[in-house]
Amino acid sequence: MTDPRTAPPDSAAPSPFESLPKTQEPRLWCGDGWTARVLKNEDDDGWAVAMIKDGEPEPALVGPWTMGRDKKNPKPLDVNAFNTLVKTAAEFVRRHEQQLHATLHQRITVSAKSARVTVSLDIVPDEEHPHALLSAHDEGGELLAELRVAPSFKLNRVSAVAWAESDFSRPAER
């Protein structure tokens, strides 16, 4: 039996990106789940850098890149620049995901018929049958009503109060 005081510690599960080879070339760096690629800017004489998340077909972020000392070629990528680009691109992706979530999931709490009601609109962006679920919950979280509406339904204070005060009858589609 192995003595737990001398046994090697359990290793944490390796990151799926640890097995990928790291590339560190002047115009191409890969690592930490990202690829930074320095490209010729098609719009002018400058350079751009594209940050591509592993497994994604399109860059998450494209921005200008610094010219080198010869004023012709791009400045080579280095570890500090790559780490900064990864942090910036990851933050950009995170903000985009938060904005998308906020667009697809809206919630408003209103007073109607002497009660507080939380009305939610959850858009389902299905390619063939896009729709939204409009729901209402009381203060205790109990479901009061739920129905399917068009994804273009506009949830705001006026529409939420009107729906609650109509005893949650189907709102008029606009």
Strand content bin: 25-35%
Number of helices: 2
Mean pLDDT across residues: 87
> In terms of structural class, how would the helical and strand content be classed?
alpha+beta
> What portion of residues is helical?
10-25%
Return Rg in Å.
26 Å
Largest sheet: 5 strands, antiparallel
* Order of SSEs: EEEEEHEEEEH
Number of strands: 9
Kindly report the spatial arrangement of strands forming the biggest sheet: 1-2-3-4-5
Give a structural overview.
It is a single chain. The protein has helices at residues 79-104, 157-165, and strands at residues 23-25, 28-31, 34-40, 47-53, 61-65, 105-112, 115-124, 131-137, 143-149. It has 2 helices and 9 strands. Strands 1-2-3-4-5 form a 5-stranded antiparallel β-sheet, with helices on one face. Mean pLDDT is 87; it is low at 1-19. Among the domains are: 23-77, no CATH class; 104-165.
